[in-house]
Amino acid sequence: MTKEQGAFRTIGELSKELKIKPHILRYWEDQFAMLTPLKRAGARRHYRPEDVETVKLINRLLNEEGYTIKGARKFLTSRRKRPEMVENVPQSVAESAPSAEDGLEDNGLVLAELKSIRDQLSQALSQA
Fold first, then answer.
1. Domains parsed from the chain with CATH numbers
2. Other residues' Cβ atoms within 10 Å of the Cβ of residue 8
3. Which residues contact 38 (CB under 8 A, 6 or more apart)?
4. pTM score
5. Strand, coil or helix: what is 17?
6. What is the rounded CA–CA span in Å between residue 87 and residue 97?
């Protein structure tokens, strides 16, 4: 029996669903202020759908993309401050942005790319 998408999850259910041990989830609550599940009688945790999405994002950042806890916290904090910047990045800009693996790329090219993006954004804002 599976729960609906919008249902609250206990720490055990979330742990099984995402294959993350409960003690890791509790640790992440200490490390990430934005992760605040409801605590019921006996301090039992109930994760709301938005908490589940936050846990999935934290898991992806830490275990798939190689972020440190400090780096993931910084990413999530900046995302909360300006979510439209993270979610509405045009695909062409996201694809053309240099990746961390291209660390040896010429800084002049990167600077020129950033200036081009700045000009495009400035033009779009002036037309709005």
1. 1-88 (1.10.1660.10), 89-128 (no CATH)
2. 17
3. 8, 45, 46, 47, 48
4. 0.59
5. helix
6. 15
